[in-house]
Amino acid sequence: MSEKPATTVNKSAALDLNVVRVSIKTHLKNQAHQWLTPFDQNTPASAVEAVLKKRCESVDEALVSLWNAIGMPKQYSLVAVGGYGRGELFPFSDVDVLILIDKEPDEINTEKLETFCGSGWDIGLEIGHSVRTTAQCVEEAGKDITVQTALVESRLLAGNSSNFKSLNSSLKNLLEVKTFFRKKTLELRQRHAKYQETPYSLEPNCKESPGGLRDLHVILWVCRAANLGNSWAEMAKKGLITPFEAAKLRNNERTLKKIRYQLHVTTGRREDRLVYDVQTQLAESLGYRPTSAKRSSEQLMQQYYLAAKAVMQLNTILLQNIELSIFGANAEPVVIDNEFQETDSLLDIRDDDVFARNPSAMLRAFIVMQQNPRLKGMSARMLRQLWHSRVKINSEFRKNPVNKALFIEFFKQPQGIVHELRRMNETSVLGRYLPVFRKIVGQMQHDLFHVYTVDQHILTVVRNLRRFTMAEHAHEYPYCSQLMANFDDHWLLYVAALFHDVAKGRGGDHSVLGEVDARKFCKDHGLNQENTDLVAFLVKHHLTMSNTAQKKDLSDVEVLKEFAALVKLPAT
Fold first, then answer.
1. What is the pLDDT of residue 6?
2. How far is CA 76 from CA 117, 127, 160, in A?
């Protein structure tokens, strides 16, 4: 007799919970249009953050309602972690939660835990959950930096606040800032290596690739751990970045979020890769339209690459400044010359107004890097001043004979040409000095032949030419290496490579347009007629050479005669 009331209560409770689940699911479905509505090109990127916050609030409300309806124990805590804890949920992202318990659950509480987690899926949320005591959380955080990072962004949703505060206190005692910084920056380097150190691949991951959202997360994590700020504005107040740099980071972060959001909506799933087959659909959903010179996908991808490039530039500055704030300087600077010094194996400026006093030093800095291979890179102060001073590279700067000579001298250096040419591009100095090059920075070629943007493709061609000059690579293409060894002015080939695709995306024959640009460059930089003609010829006929080598029958005598007549081979 005593079992009947209990059965009745259990059935009633199950019925009530089912009603709650249906109600919550219906409510979430009705709200879904708010975070599944596509944006267009004119929608402010800031609007995405409002939608992400709204979805987060809706999920908060749904989980708390479930938590209360199930009657979870008062000593338990429901905690949002990871991206959900950060307060942003993309349309198809996982909802990661920690259920903080005081001790191992008995049978009744185990059933409640299972009911809660299962109900989360029932209402349409992809729940990623863990159930741990405070001691277990601390133990796991001590073993796994990923767990520790997720808990750094934790947020209490419901339940026992004292346990949550105790957890935070324990984690704070566990967290060793220097170790945390080293591990997170190691993760960043490993992740960058996985994506070939570039954001410019054909199908970048807008979250994980270099310059993606994860790079920004790393900065926020280490700053939060070191009490250096929880936002870009707070970091600016701490002097880690300037207010202008903080605004730039914020704008580019919003651009990346907008693209990721739209990618989820367009594909209807959790997809963070800008896969080739989706780029056109994604671009058109954002309002891009093809022009005579550029596909819609190429316009979208250029916006993405420019944002990712800016993130990488500013991240480098920020990470160095954070490291200096945490660890302090390791050694006294070593003077190189009147304008530059070596600081912790990095090239540094001796004072902040070097480039204001002598703008030509912006070009000379890269030559100093070439001439001092022991230097591992440029200091944050140097990069910051380069980035802010690049606007001084204008028409007057380009007309200055000193700067013209420095630019040519750069290509004549025996080493470091490719590394520093890439660095010159990353710091936007190259595009400022060569306006025609600036137009193709971040420009995607929407075909399966070119796997990088035009600027990265050009720099890769320069790299391949450089390999022909190096004995350690002679076995790869022996004949090419032999030809290069018999040609004295290698730098002319590098200039030709720099211009061979520089007219892409303008409409018309880029080889012909590029030849005009190359001739102008050579004339402006004082090359003699013979060298000018060589560079211009290589630019104009670079497709003729590749088509002959790759698409024609080289055993056909007529093919060889036609090509020989074009290049005017000397009689043998």
1. 40
2. 14, 18, 6
| Token pair 């040519």: residue | 408
The set of residues, in sequence order, having a beta carbon less than 8 Å from that of 476 and lying 6+ positions away, is: 467
Q: What is the pLDDT of residues 183-242, one digit of tens each?
A: 999 999 999 999 988 899 889 999 999 999 999 999 999 999 999 999 999 999 999 999
153 and 50 assigned to the same domain: yes
pLDDT tens-digit profile of 423-481? 999 999 999 999 999 999 999 876 656 678 899 999 999 999 999 999 999 999 999 99
The pLDDT, as a whole number, for residue 293 is: 83
Give yes or no for a contact between 312 and 213, defined as CB atoms under 8 angstroms apart.
Answer: no
327 vs 318: CA distance, rounded Å: 14
Which structural domain, as residue segments, surrounds residue 157? 3-174
Give the amino acid at 310: A
Does the residue 343 lie in any domain? Answer: no
- Tell how far CA 497 is from the center of its chain: 26
In whole angstroms, how far apart are CA 17 and each of 97, 122, 404, 515? Answer: 20, 12, 76, 74
Full strand arrangement of the beta sheet holding 340-343: 334-335, 340-343, 346-349, 377-378
Instruction: Tell me which amino acid residue 497 is.
Output: A
**342 inside domain:** no
pLDDT value of residue 444: 83
Say if residue 344's pLDDT is above 70.
Answer: yes
Q: Read off the pLDDT of residues 372-415 as tens digits, 9 standing for 90 and up.
A: 999 999 999 999 999 999 999 999 999 999 999 999 999 999 99
pLDDT of res. 323: 94
Long-range contacts of 542-550 (CB under 8 A, 24+ apart): 542/496, 542/500, 542/511, 543/511
Q: Can you tell me the distance from the alpha carbon of 432 to that of 173, in angstroms, rounded to the nearest whole number?
A: 48
Contact present, 499 and 517 (Cβ < 8 Å)? yes
pLDDT of residue 449: 65
At 12, the amino acid letter reads: S
Rounded to whole angstroms, the maximal C-alpha distance in the chain is 114
Model's pTM, two decimal places?
0.87
Residue whose C-alpha is closest to residue 155's, from 77, 253, 58, 68? 77
Same domain, 186 and 169: no
The verdict on 13 and 150 lying in the same domain is yes
Whether the Cβ atoms of residue 235 and residue 58 lie closer than 8 Å to each other: no
Instruction: Return the pLDDT at 14.
Output: 56
Are 158 and 201 in a shared domain?
A: no
- Distance from CA of residue 296 to its chain's centroid? 21
Let me know if 2 is exposed, middle or buried by CB neighbors in 10 A (0-12, 13-18, 19+): exposed
**Do residues 110 and 155 share a domain?**
yes
- Is 358 a domain residue? no
Do residues 425 and 507 both lie within one domain? yes
List, in order, residues 6 or more apart from 239 with CB less than 8 Å away: 321
* Dist CA 238 CA 386 (whole Å): 21
